[in-house]
Design brief:
This protein is mostly helical. It folds into 3 domains: 26-174 and 354-505, no CATH class; 177-323; 510-671, Up-down Bundle (Methane Monooxygenase Hydroxylase, Chain G, domain 1). Helix content is 73%, strand content 0%. It is built from 26 helices and no strands. Helix 5 (66-94) packs antiparallel against helix 8 (144-172), helix 6 packs antiparallel against helix 15 and helix 9 packs parallel to helix 12. The chain is globular.
Length: 672
């Protein structure tokens, strides 16, 4: 739904919305700027080579939460050491043979790509970047001791960057993560209520315009900050709050309300019918109470009116899904002696058995190896960015790859051409002190960090920073040549060609197919939740926690991938857009059913009798298996979802109907 709103807004307005300030954006950008400036001054004073990786690493660690910055920095450092150590071990064993470097490029890129897909901890990208970067240094003609030192310096500068980021975050960003999460939730709920009240009431047009602007701003801000706060709350081991699963359950529906309300901002007030006005006022009251709601209070949803139009009817359903949550005990801090939440596993459950992970790693390995051989055959070391670009933009689906390619090219062009060459021509000739240089770095870091906090084009800011740092810190004196900027742009374009051939032309993995598979995993987890309804042993309780996390993660993945559909290309783009919207609607219905199941697990007197729960579990498992194994929907699968199940809840029937709509789209296409 957010995709439809974005397509209805002009591109200039989209960019303006992306760059608007929101709560925490200025403070976070200033913290990143301060950390980058501090790290650069330390590295320049001590004349440390490889400053660019250390400065850029701060952008990767700016999670707005000190705890996540610390843990991510620790994992990053560990994988950096493993990457550089693996390179040195390969060089020592092979005697720096040219063929060993080719095989090392293939091996390290394969391992990094496989870990990026299967490992739950962060750090796989750091292993790939640092192992491949240090391996490229051994192509230079230099003494062995100098090359060893050059291979180790990126770790040292990375440590400086990590320490600077952690220090600044803990000094300037200390706060209660649960309070910050509740404040973000409250802000969005009240904004929806204020807009709906202004839309349905007789207030001045300027009030409606201001409420609409605030609503669209929050819609474009996305849910990244709230997800980061949730991760910090759930991952803390000691002194952490009791894990509150209401917020992970409510967030998808809150953002569904937000997106639907943002689409209504394009509707004229005088075009609303009386039934829609009444529904808007009832929803406004509900959202206002939702903003003030505490977890131990029961919410009362507005009555669902069949006379309301499509958008208001969908918003009433989302409000009803949120209201199904049972009251929860007041949040309290968990004493240390009660034990902490067990750490999640390092790898996904199907890491060794899913062929998609091996397929993806082999494709990345092929692209990086071809890129390395190509720029070595041309004797053009400046094209070395081709290897890292492949590792960065080579994602699993076509939409994600196209999105990353566009954003990286725009960011690299702005960083190299606009900022880099602009500084070389107009600024560096007039700078002779470290203070003036630090001010320039601070200004560039602030601009890049501000853009990097954009909900949809943030990757442009990160690539601007990386490209500029590579040019500015090429040597300790001010750069005077434009050749590095030219070579990096050419290397990125060459990587795009390789990724295009390997990922988009040879058996491409469409984004809509990835959405379908993610939805099938969520359905399978819900089927198992139904099967566990009558079991109260400790093993079943632990399994329920894992199933809750699986459903929430897979449904969030479906909604995240729906934003990438707009980057799809080809003759079937419109068909993929339509099917992605149907899958998105199905994910919302699955979320409603998930909330109903979560509430059902807490009731003593359950509405679902065990025989009915087992029958629905078997039916849902059949749907999930068919969705996971069938690339194209068959008439048999469609017929499987046509017949309602006697005794099933309304949410289950809504899910069945949404899945049936998706299946029917295939037969409509064939008939056309």
């Amino acid at each position: 739904m957010e995709t439809r709103l974005r397509e209805a807004v002009p591109p200039i307005e989209l960019i303006r919305q992306e760059l608007l300030p929101f709560h925490g954006r200025l403070a976070g950008s200033l913290r990143t700027t301060l950390a980058v400036t501090l790290a650069v001054i330390v590295m320049v004073v001590f004349r440390m080579p490889a400053i660019a990786p250390g400065a850029y690493l701060i952008f990767l660690l700016s999670y707005e939460t000190p705890y996540l910055t610390l843990t991510t920095g620790f994992y990053s450092f560990c994988f950096q050491c493993v990457g550089v150590g693996s390179t040195l071990l390969l060089i020592m064993v092979s005697g720096n043979a040219p063929m060993a470097r080719v095989l090392g490029t293939a091996l390290f890129s394969f391992i990094a790509a496989y870990l990026m897909k299967t490992m739950r901890r962060r750090g796989a990208m750091d292993f790939g970047v640092f192992s491949l970067t240090s391996l490229e240094m051994w192509d230079m003609k230099a003494p062995t001791q100098s090359l060893i030192a050059l291979s180790m310096w990126p770790i040292a500068t990375g440590v400086i960057g990590i320490l600077s980021a952690v220090l600044i975050e803990y000094v300037f960003a200390r706060r209660d993560p649960f309070y910050a999460l509740h404040r973000e939730f409250e802000t969005r709920a009240k904004a929806i209520g204020a807009f709906l009240r202004a839309l349905a009431g007789d207030e001045a047009q300027c009030n409606l315009r201001n409420a609409s602007k605030e609503l669209i701003r929050l819609s474009f801000a996305g849910q990244g900050r709230m997800q980061a706060l949730l991760e910090e709350i759930s991952n803390r081991r000691e002194g952490a709050p009791v894990y509150v699963d209401e917020y992970p359950l409510m967030l998808p529906h809150l953002f569904r309300l937000l997106d639907l309300a943002a689409q209504l901002s394009l509707v004229r007030r005088d075009a609303l019918q009386q039934a829609d006005r009444a529904a808007a006022l009832a929803l406004a009251d509900f959202c206002s109470s939702l903003g003030k709601h505490s977890l131990h209070e029961k919410l009362v949803a507005p009555a669902i009116s069949a006379e309301a139009s499509g958008h208001f009817f969908a918003m009433q359903q989302a409000a009803a899904a949120i209201a199904r949550l049972e009251p929860h005990e007041t949040v309290r801090w968990q004493p240390k002696e009660r034990g902490a939440k067990p750490a999640p596993p390092w790898f996904v459950a199907d890491a060794l058995h899913n062929p998609a992970y091996w397929n993806y790693a082999l494709r990345i390995c092929l692209c990086t190896t071809l890129g390395y051989i190509l720029y070595m055959a041309l004797d053009w070391p400046g094209l070395s960015t081709v290897v890292l670009t492949v590792l960065i933009v080579g994602l699993s689906s076509t939409g994600a790859i196209s999105q990353k390619m566009v954003l990286r090219f725009v960011g690299a062009t702005l960083g190299c051409v606009v900022l880099g060459i602009g500084s070389i021509v107009f600024l560096f000739p007039h700078m002779d002190t470290i203070a003036s240089f630090a001010l320039l770095i601070a200004a560039v870091a602030f601009v890049c960090s501000w853009i990097a906090r954009s909900p949809h084009i943030g990757y442009i800011g990160m690539q601007m920073a990386f490209s500029y740092f590579l040019i500015a810190f090429e040597r300790f004196s001010a750069p005077v040549s434009m050749t590095p900027a030219r070579d990096r742009i050419i290397g990125i374009c060459l990587a795009f060609v390789l990724v295009w051939i390997v990922f988009l032309e040879i058996a491409p993995v469409r984004t809509v197919a990835q959405m379908r598979i993610a939805l099938s995993h969520a359905l399978a987890a819900q089927a198992e939740m139904l099967a566990l309804l009558g079991k109260n042993d400790e093993a079943s309780a632990r399994r329920r926690v894992k199933l809750h996390e699986t459903v929430a993660r897979q449904l969030a993945a479906v909604q995240s991938m729906s934003e990438m559909i707009s980057y799809e290309i080809g003759t079937e783009r419109q068909r993929h857009l339509r099917r992605s919207n149907l899958l998105l609607e199905a994910s919302y219905s699955a979320g409603d059913f998930f909330l109903m199941l979560a509430a059902e697990e807490r009731r003593t007197a359950r509405a679902y009798a065990l025989p009915l729960a087992e029958a629905l579990s078997a039916e849902l498992h059949t749907w999930a298996k068919a969705f996971a194994q069938t690339p194209e929907v068959t008439p048999a699968l469609t017929r499987l979802m046509e017949k309602p199940h006697a005794g099933a809840s309304e949410t289950f029937e809504n899910l069945r109907h949404a899945l049936w709509n998706y299946c029917s789209s295939f037969h409509e296409q064939e008939a056309a």
